[in-house]
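Hi R.,

Here's the chain you asked about this morning:
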Amino acid sequence: MDFLSKLLQGLAFVPVIVNGIEKVFGDRRGPDKRDAAMSFVQAALASAEAVASRQILDEAQFKNGLGLVIDGTVACLNASIWAAKAQPTPEVKP
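And the predicted structure, written out as tokens:
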């Protein structure tokens, strides 16, 4: 399997990973949740294997890009109905 298809398959898991991290680490700070998501995404992409086979030439830049994908996913989820479901429904008083 070529690198691009492996990357795209790994990125497909980002929303699921972010949602799971939010459920498990909901009370923790944003950077802690981001670090946890980065760990899971990197494992899903097996970036160590790609670095070893020289398909990723700049690991730091690759990790930075993954962080941007995670941040973008969180921004999209926060702007969606997903965020509204995560917040308690306001109580309506007569």
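The chain has one domain: 3-85.

Let me know if you need anything else.
M.
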